[in-house]
Design brief:
Layout: E1 2-5, E2 13-14, H1 28-34, H2 38-43, E3 45-52, E4 60-61, H3 63-76, E5 78-87, E6 93-102, E7 105-115, E8 121-129, H4 131-150
Parallel strand pairs: 3-8
Antiparallel strand pairs: 1-2, 1-5, 3-4, 5-6, 6-7, 7-8
Helix pairs in contact: 3-4
Length: about 150
Amino acid sequence: MYVTLSGGKNARTQSALNPYERSRPMHPFRDAVEAQDIEAAIALLAEDVVFRSPVVFKPYHGREAVAPLLRAVSRVFEDFRYECEIGAEGASDHALVFSARVGERKLDGCDFLHTNEHGLIDDMCVMVRPLSGALALAEAMKAELLAAQGD
């Protein structure tokens, strides 16, 4: 099991071999998001991906339904940064802990990813806190998605 922490003066990487060694991100989704390459992140989604949103009760099904959400959130989040990655290299499950801002609201969150036998993300659940941040995210996403429909 590896835990990768990034950023800040207390940044460190813990691994079974060397708890102070800085390692690369384990999950390619993190690589794509940190590179601000949302299309590469979308390419990592399985065709039948299930996405559970932090602000909508009903899950989204399929890459075509999830892609617009990832594009929109990439425009809504400001100062986005992955803080910690939890999971074993090569494992099917990863948790990517992040911080971001939506307008004046700071929030913390986590992307829970499960990959299929082909290495594609087939299940993604996002959680955010605090409630004020989740509400700001919901409002900004609604506006962004409506604006995207008008384009």
